[in-house]
């Protein structure tokens, strides 16, 4: 079960990173 939680955390981190990148793009425009 520990490995499953780690995988979920990695996926969430990737999603958060994409949201942050989108925000910076909007701010630059």
Description:
The protein is mainly alpha-helical. It has one domain (about 1-29). Helices cover about 95% and strands about 0% of the residues. It contains 1 helix and no strands.
Oligomer: single chain
Q: Main sheet?
A: none
Q: How many structural domains in the coordinates?
A: 1
Tally of DSSP helical segments:
1
From the helix content, strand content and strand pairing, which structural class follows? Answer: mainly alpha
Query: How big a fraction of the residues is strand?
Result: under 5%
Secondary-structure element order, N to C: H
Low-confidence stretches: none
Mean pLDDT, as a whole number? 67
Q: What is the count of β-strands?
A: 0
User: What is the percent of helical residues?
Assistant: over 70%
Instruction: Tell me the distance between the termini.
Output: 43 Å
Radius of gyration: 13 Å
What coarse outline follows from CA principal-axis ratios?
rod-shaped
Show the helix and strand layout.
Blueprint (H helix, E strand, L loop, with lengths): L1 H27 L1
Q: Which terms summarize this structure?
A:
29 residues, 1 helix, 93% helix, 0% strand, rod-shaped
Provide a short characterization of the protein structure.
This protein has one domain (1-29). 93% of the residues lie in helices and 0% in strands. It has one helix and no strands.
């Amino acid at each position: 079960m520990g490995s499953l939680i780690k995988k979920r955390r990695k996926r969430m981190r990737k999603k958060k990173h994409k949201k942050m990148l989108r925000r910076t793009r909007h701010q630059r425009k």
